[in-house]
From TrEMBL:
A Pfam family assignment: DUF3159
Keywords: Membrane, Transmembrane, Transmembrane helix
TM region positions: 21-43, 49-66, 73-91, 97-122, 143-164, 176-200
Keyword set includes Transmembrane: yes
Membrane recorded as keyword: yes
InterPro entries: UCP010219
Protein name: Membrane protein
Length: 212
């Protein structure tokens, strides 16, 4: 007697990149300590700003634990602000707090540029990583072209941060450096993200439309 057909095992589901980052709230939460430092340093002084940023990082971590949300984004943000606070404390200058961000922007900008040159535009890699998709998009010329342009825009965003904030860093303009850090954070990121969404959806409509 042969056994009947075995039920198919459900495919194992892995968390997407966005889920691993704690969703949109996790991304926002990881940047709160930086914003607290910028504002506190403008209103008060370096040491109160360092303490306020560290307290904000701990508060975010506790808030995520209470809400039973992924802790990794908050821990990563706390480690990042801890490193920035350490550099600022050791140098005795508020601009030291922004040095890790400048280095990160330079590294991201270089990575995005190189990804275009090797035809693996990171805008596409990250987009489909967030949505848990594969890499089939690379076989679609319209999508590959859209992600290439989007990646070049992200490269420009990172490069503009490095250039402008680097000039302010060299000039020791701590207040304006903090203002630039905030102004060139979510606003530029939001614009680049909107362009990426528009370019990708336009490319998808072009790819799905029947050839005439």
């Amino acid at each position: 007697m042969t056994a009947g057909p075995q039920p198919e095992r459900p495919e194992r589901q892995f968390p997407t990149l966005l889920e691993q980052m704690g969703g949109v709230s996790g991304i926002v939460a990881s940047t709160i300590p930086v914003g607290v430092f910028v504002i506190s340093n403008i209103l008060f002084d370096l040491q109160p700003a360092i303490i306020a940023a560290l307290v904000a990082g701990v508060a975010v971590a506790v808030w995520r634990v209470v809400r039973k949300q992924p802790l990794q984004p908050a821990v990563s943000g706390l480690l990042g602000v801890g490193l920035a606070a350490f550099i600022a404390s050791r140098t005795g200058e508020a601009r030291g707090f922004y040095l890790p961000g400048l280095i990160a922007s330079a590294a991201f900008g270089l990575a995005f540029l190189v990804s275009v040159l090797v035809r693996w535009p990171l805008a596409g890699v990250v987009w489909h990583g967030i949505n848990g998709d594969g890499h089939g998009w690379r076989r679609n010329p319209a999508l590959l072209r859209a992600y290439t342009w989007a990646t070049l825009l992200w490269t420009l965003v990172f490069a503009s941060r490095v250039v402008l904030q680097g000039l302010l860093y060299d000039a020791n303009e701590e207040t304006w450096l903090g203002v630039a850090r905030l102004a060139m954070g979510y606003p530029l990121t939001g614009l680049a993200l909107l362009f990426t969404i528009w370019a990708v959806r336009r490319a998808q409509r072009t790819a799905d439309s029947p050839a005439t």
